[in-house]
Amino acid sequence: MTESTQPNPRHRLSPLTCDAPGLRQSIRDALVRVVGKDPDLATPRDWLHAVSFAIRERIIERRVVTRRQFAEEDVKRVYYLSMEYLIGRMLEANLRNMGIFEVTQQALQDLGVDFREIARLEEDAALGNGGLGRLAACILESMATQGYPGYGYGIRYEYGMFQQHIEHFRQVEHPDNWLRYGNPWEFPRPEKTFPVRFYGYVVEHHRPDGETSCNWENGEEVLAMAYDYPTAGYERRNVNNLRLWAAKATRDFDLRYFNEGDYIRAVADKNESETISMVLYPNDATAIGKELRLKQEYFFVSASLQDIFDRHRQLEYPIEELADKAAIQLNDTHPAIAVAECMRLLLDEHRIPWDQAWTITQNLFSYTNHTLMPEALETWPVALMERVLPRHMGIIYRINHEFIEEVRHRFPGEHEFFRRLSIIDEEHGRRVRMAHLAVIGSHRVNGVAALHTSLLKQTLFADFSRVWPERFVNVTNGVTPRLWMIQANPGLTELIDSRIGSDWKFDLDRLKQFAPYASDEATREAFRAVKLRNKERLAALVHKRTGLAIRPDVMYDVQIKRIHEYKRQLLKLLHVIELYQRIRDGEDVLPRVVLFAGKAAPGYQRAKDIIAVINEVADIVNHDPAMGDRLKCVFFPNYEVSSATIIIPAADLSEQISTAGFEASGTGNMKLAMNGALTIGTLDGANIEIRDAVGTENIFIFGMTADRVSAHRAQGIPPGAHLDSHPRLRSMVEALRDGFFSNGGRHLHAEIARYLLEEDPFFVLADYAAYSDACAQADRLYQDAEAWSEAALLNVARMSHFSIDRTVREYAENIWNVLPEPVPPPCPESNKN
Ligand code: Z57
Predict the structure, then answer these.
(1) CA 104 → CA 19, 68, 505, 810, 830, distances in Å?
(2) Cβ(370) to ligand 1 under 6 A?
(3) Is pLDDT at 1 greater than 50 in this prediction?
(4) Whole-angstrom Cα distance, residue 327 to residue 319?
(5) What is the mean pLDDT of the chain?
(6) Shortest CA distance to 441 belongs to which of 339, 333, 562?
(7) Which end of the chain, C or N, has fewer beta carbons within 10 A?
(8) How far apart, in whole angstroms, are the C-alpha atoms of residue 57 and residue 757?
(9) pLDDT tier at 252, thresholds 50, 70, 90
(10) How far apart are CA 730 and CA 728, in angstroms?
(11) Is the pLDDT of residue 724 over 50?
């Protein structure tokens, strides 16, 4: 019995000690007994694994306690379904959340091991692309910290986000073999294995009660095997579980060939079914139309739902009460097939009548939308869905039929309206619109920032919002202050602690008490000292990664995010060109480092070209003696969570310059502002709420609003017209066009200039003048170090709204209807356990 509630006295745990001698002993033991190394011969990686195994024991011990309490207390559980988890390195995060970071450093030091040296050897768990995957990781951490019974489900990709190398200025992708050295943080659960079916056909049975039930027969089966990653809450609170599925060939994978006597072929072919969990698709905010992607989506959804149903049964709850005991959150439409899978399980396995099954399903699910961009909206050809998931296609037809009947009744005669609402898009060769399935199958649908949710209701889901206005709600994103402040920025953390104590770490609202210190000269000076140290740390890393030497005593201006036209890296690059030309013209320009970082989807040629142009412009700028150290342009390669923790605390200026209406929320904007960077940004995504929080005097807002962008688009002004009133901009674009910055690849530069002048759907040139003015304003404020530090400190103190804890509470209260279930801390006498 898996979900037992009866503690067996014979199985009582003897708690592990968490003082330095106890940890030292555990690490030494693990080195020999788990890693299997003689301490005299141990490499730094052996020590990394030894300490990780010692900590893992302590985490899993608390996981056991947490799980038991949930089972005893009859709690309602939350299941977060996400194709992506962008976690980063786990050792330091686990140590800090377990409250044993300092003592473990001490224990290692006693063993003659340097914590920093071994910690950097850990591979990032990069099972995600960008914002969406990182949000999932922050939400899991917060659910554990706040004591919510939250379970993550996803895929254990063998290869995560590709490693980005820059060769001859261009991005080259290398596979991310992150499991190469084994992974101390995972617990394989071979006994938790579920079959997942693809293809085959449906056989209908007419039952005596008038219902039809179906059997999905034949086809191919793959096994989903669980790997568990315990997720520790901050300061030895609850430990929750992230369960990632890996594909394994079924035991009878080989029957056909075995019968033909081809043993070798049978064993060799098993690899094919195991490709399902092989690799993360490296596309951010674009839909992938590949059959393998659909199989990945269904694979993890089916395994997760079987597991959720199983747990419900083991706890001896009646199936009718599923939605009282569980809430399932769909992170975008990637897991939306879960709506049909849930119906299949209720109808075909549990023999529940349609209407009752549908009520349960709708009460169970809710869906988060992360984008309005049409190219990111998933639609699957009906023919493909019919072939891969024939039973689900039948269920989707019926869901659609029942839904259209309902609206036909409420809105008689509005045939256009029904056509637009339908799950089936009949205009582009019959496709299943996954967003429609997700909306219809959920009781709540949320956007991720106020502007985004309001645009969702006005555009993408305008029709649905007429049908069900109360279904659409906003939950503005947040980020975890544990990783993004305490871990990434110990200097700032110490400064805050010294002024207001350390309660703010659990309740970010208390950071407001820090605001008065913005007008305290000593605090401002201490803040500048912290920034300087953070810049030195970044400068050292930049030197190591790129060979480029940058000064720590200048403005650090950063744009760090996926490379995408709508995010407008080209707008920042034009500003670099402007500064370059001004310095060449003998003007006195504020010295600065401009740092770009981010990956381009391997198939997104324009984004890859943008990386190449940035690198080529940087090469000219960085080697021109006329710049005299006043301008450096860095492209920081292979941006990932672990590099973000170094770049963000060093930033002065945060570039959040997407075309208004396109960035759903952004979360990098939050991380940077809470580390004391001032934002230069458009009124897009959460920037609007950040402005409201920090005050208009403490942020640089520029450019067209979302409304103006729509109006501007309607006017159809050729982008090149914006050069007429701006001679400087003309000379910049012409320099680009004429290959001034090119290293032989002139054609690329000419093409980018042509794009800006003739095509650019994101209005870089239209917004340039306003952007350049805003940059100049930032420069002026930076020259007044006291005024800048005051604004930066006010940013830190006023960002509490963007704690992920607030976000998670909103989901819990308004969508999931679940309560926190904090596990009481172990008795204080038992020494830090
Ligand atoms: C992704 O990272 C986001 C949206 C998507 O549709 C996909 Br696919 C991937 C991002 C948004 O672009 C950000 O604006 C947002 O902050 C983030 O999701 C988290 O909500």
Answers:
(1) 8, 27, 21, 35, 18
(2) yes
(3) no
(4) 14
(5) 95
(6) 339
(7) N
(8) 59
(9) low
(10) 5
(11) yes
Per DSSP, 418 falls in state: H
d(CA 689, CA 799): 10
User: Does residue 230 have its Cβ closer than 6 Å to ligand 1?
Assistant: no
Cβ of 489 less than 6 Å from ligand 1: no
CB 245 within 8 A of CB 229: no
Where is pLDDT greater, at 451 or 211?
451
Tell me the per-residue pLDDT of 486-498, one tens digit each, with 9 for 90 and over. Answer: 999 999 999 999 9
CA distance between the termini of the chain: 28
Contacts (Cβ under 8 Å, ≥6 apart) of 414: none
Are the beta carbons of 770 and 725 closer than 8 angstroms?
no
CA 10 – CA 395 distance, rounded (Å):
48
pLDDT class of 480 with cuts at 50, 70, 90: very high
Q: How far is CA 611 from the centre of its chain?
A: 22
Instruction: Report how far ligand 1's centroid is from the alpha carbon of 601 (Å).
Output: 14
Mutate to test the pocket of ligand 1, among 371, 373, 479, 669 (most ligand atoms within 8 A of CB): 371
Residue 129 alpha carbon, nearest atom of ligand 1: 2
pLDDT of residue 361: 99
For 127-150, the pLDDT digits (tens) are 999 999 999 999 999 999 999 999
- Structure-block tokens of residue 106: 């001490």
Counting atoms of ligand 1 from 1, which one is nearest the CA of 686? 16
The CB of 129 under 6 Å from ligand 1? The reply is yes
The amino acid occupying position 57 is: E
Catalytic residue set: 370, 561-562, 567, 667, 671
Q: Which domains does the chain have, with CATH numbers?
A: 16-172+185-476 (3.40.50.2000), 481-802 (3.40.50.2000)
Where on the phi/psi map is residue 35: left (φ > 0), alpha (ψ -120 to 50), or beta?
alpha
Please return the burial class of 169, using the count of CB atoms within 10 Å of its CB with bins 0-12, 13-18 and 19+.
Answer: buried
One-letter identity of residue 118? I
Q: Calculate how far, in angstroms, residue 488's C-alpha sits from the geometric centre of ligand 1.
A: 22
Q: How far is the CA of 225 from the centre of ligand 1 (A)?
A: 28
Report the DSSP beta bridge partners of residue 701. Answer: 681
CA distances to 8, 156, 186, 487, 678 from 183, in Å: 31, 12, 6, 22, 38
Instruction: Assess whether the C-beta atom of 284 lies below 6 angstroms from ligand 1.
Output: yes
Provide the β-strand partners of residue 249. 222
DSSP for 784-805 reads SHHHHHHHHHHHHHT-GGGBHH
Ligand 1: distance of its center to the CA of 401 in Å? Answer: 31
Judge if the beta carbon of residue 184 lies within 6 A of ligand 1: no
Instruction: Give the per-residue pLDDT at 735.
Output: 98
pLDDT at 5: 55
Residue 759 has pLDDT above 50, yes or no: yes
Q: Is the CB of 478 under 6 A from ligand 1?
A: no
pLDDT at 12 over 90: no
Q: Quick check: 2 pLDDT over 80?
A: no
pLDDT at residue 433, as a whole number? 98
DSSP result, 216-265: EESSEEEEEEEEEEEEEPTTT--EEEEEEEEEEE-TTTTHHHHHTT-HHH
Percent of the chain with pLDDT over 90: 90
| Average pLDDT for 574-601 | 98
Degrees to nearest 5, angle at CA 473 with 361 and 763: 120
Q: Report the separation in Å between the CA atom of 704 and the middle of ligand 1, taken as the mean of its atom positions.
A: 21
Token duo for residue 605: 């040629």
| Residue of 331, 370, 434, 451 best suited for mutating to test ligand 1, as the one with most atoms within 8 Å of CB | 370
